[in-house]
């Protein structure tokens, strides 16, 4: 199974920025789409950004223009720079392939203070 380890979360003020990273245990980006997800307490997990093998990206309306998904295939790492963070962005963020694999990483907590 591919192991996915998310990192880069933290506590920031409204308007701040963070850069999340997702390290995969083996090369998967060339054959799989990848996505960033988030889940707030009491809320459904939602897909916020995706990138397919060709490099095409798209975003949920809630983050479009603020978040950017990118990848470094040589490093087996997926990134999510996040700008203009809002309290509504507070959630645990996860990465996974698309369609989603069975196993998820621990996620990384993003907390935006208001």
Helix content: under 10%
User: What shape does the CA trace take?
Assistant: globular
How much beta, percentage-wise?
over 45%
Report the radius of gyration as a whole number of Å.
13 Å
Question: What would you say this structure looks like, in words?
Answer:
By secondary structure, the chain is mostly beta strands. Helix content is 0%, strand content 47%. The chain has strands at residues 4-7, 10-13, 18-24, 33-39, 46-51, 57-59, 70-72, 77-82, 91-98, 108-113. A 6-stranded mixed beta sheet has the order 2-10-9-4-5-6, with no helix packed on it. A 4-stranded antiparallel beta sheet has the order 1-3-8-7, with no helix packed on it. Strand 4 and strand 5 form a beta hairpin. The protein is globular and about 40 Å long. The N and C termini lie far apart (39 Å).
Short structural description:
The chain has no helices and 10 strands.
Question: Which helices and strands occur, and which strands form pairs?
Answer:
Layout: E1 4-7, E2 10-13, E3 18-24, E4 33-39, E5 46-51, E6 57-59, E7 70-72, E8 77-82, E9 91-98, E10 108-113
Parallel strand pairs: 2-10
Antiparallel strand pairs: 1-3, 3-8, 4-5, 4-9, 5-6, 7-8, 9-10
Characteristics of this structure?
114 residues; mainly beta; 6-stranded mixed sheet; 4-stranded antiparallel sheet; 47% strand
């Amino acid at each position: 199974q591919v192991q996915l380890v998310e990192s880069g979360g933290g506590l920031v003020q409204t308007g701040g920025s963070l850069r999340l990273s997702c390290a995969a245990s083996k090369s998967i980006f060339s054959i799989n789409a990848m996505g960033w997800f988030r889940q707030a307490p009491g809320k459904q997990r939602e897909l916020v950004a995706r990138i397919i093998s060709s490099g095409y990206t798209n975003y949920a309306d809630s983050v479009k223009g603020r978040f950017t998904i990118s990848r470094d295939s040589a490093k087996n790492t997926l990134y999510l720079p996040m700008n203009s963070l809002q309290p509504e962005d507070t959630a645990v963020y996860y990465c996974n392939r698309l369609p989603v694999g069975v196993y998820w990483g621990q996620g990384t907590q993003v907390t935006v203070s208001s």
